[in-house]
Fold this sequence. Notes:
This protein is of the alpha+beta class. The chain is built from four helices and ten strands, in the order αββαββαββββββα. The strands form two sheets. A five-stranded mixed β-sheet has the order 2-1-10-5-6. Strands 3, 4, 7, 8 and 9 form a five-stranded antiparallel β-sheet that branches.
Amino acid sequence: MKRVFLALMFLLVLVPIARAQPDEPVLRIYGAVENPINITYSDFQQLPMVSVNASTICVGAPPEELGVNRFVVYTYNWTGVRLSDILTLVEPTEAAVDMKFGDNTLYSSSLPVSEIRDDMILAIYADGEVLTREQGYPFRVVLPCYWGYKWVKYVTYIEITDFDHEGYWESHGYPDDGRIPDCVPVTENPVVFTNTSLALIGAGLVLMMGSVVSASRR
């Protein structure tokens, strides 16, 4: 199976980048690798894919209170190419440390190459439909049980770095290790509200109702 995958990828890489349609997204994969490549969106669609059920979960609080008021942004059945297969394609060198994902702005995040799992993908579909811009078209990193700031949208490049890369939020104080504690991948929205956040929500509702009653008496 691995040979079939590599053969398919090799043929796609040989196709000139000029074959891309006007304005067609192109993904660059480079860095500490033996086989840096550029691959068009249409060629990426031809690669072997898998589907993963996962929820994007927002941290929702400053680093010192990580996850106090976290919440699910959305849950989909995501479809795309395994990150491990992408690594197999480009063959990281012995110097490889992180798999960095970035868009065409200054936003980026990364994972150690050694932590890449088979349920981590670069998605192009959500619930069987092409990603919308809000969902991260053209390429969206899907990392089950990692905080949302690790799920980079609008990916235009993947760089295999030879150093420990700190992404945008990581360099602003958020943990470089973006794993959600005690999280288990699920097929539907997980229960993510903590007792503290529920208490805060309850207090907020009481205050809101008090304000409404007070206003109605005026």
